[in-house]
Write a structure and sequence with these properties.
Helix content: 10-25%
Radius of gyration: 13 Å
Number of helices: 1
Number of strands: 4
Order of helices and strands: EEEEH
Mean pLDDT: 84
Structural class: alpha+beta
Number of domains: 1
Length: 70
C-alpha cells in the first residue's frame, strides 16, 4: 500500500452503481495510479496504488480472498 496523500485535483471519481447511502468508496485513475477515497470525506485522505497493485487487489477480490472479512 502506498502512503496516504491528497490526490490530484483533476480526477474523475466513480462510485459503485449501487452506492446510494453516501458512505461509499470512490475510485479514480490517472493512467499510472489508482486512487481510493471515502464519499463521506471527498477532500481526503486519499490512498494511491500502482496499476499493478490495483489489478492484484481486484483479482483477489474476485477470487474471494477477502470474503472472510465481512
Amino acid at each position: 500500500m502506498s502512503q496516504v496523500q491528497v490526490g490530484p485535483t483533476n480526477l474523475t471519481w466513480r462510485t459503485a452503481l449501487r452506492c446510494n447511502t453516501g458512505g461509499c468508496v470512490m475510485v479514480a485513475a490517472d493512467g499510472r495510479s489508482v486512487y481510493i477515497g471515502d464519499t463521506k470525506k471527498p477532500d481526503g485522505p486519499i490512498l494511491s496504488y500502482t496499476a499493478a497493485e490495483w489489478r492484484e487487489f481486484l483479482s483477489g477480490a474476485k477470487n474471494g480472498d477477502f470474503d472472510d472479512l465481512i
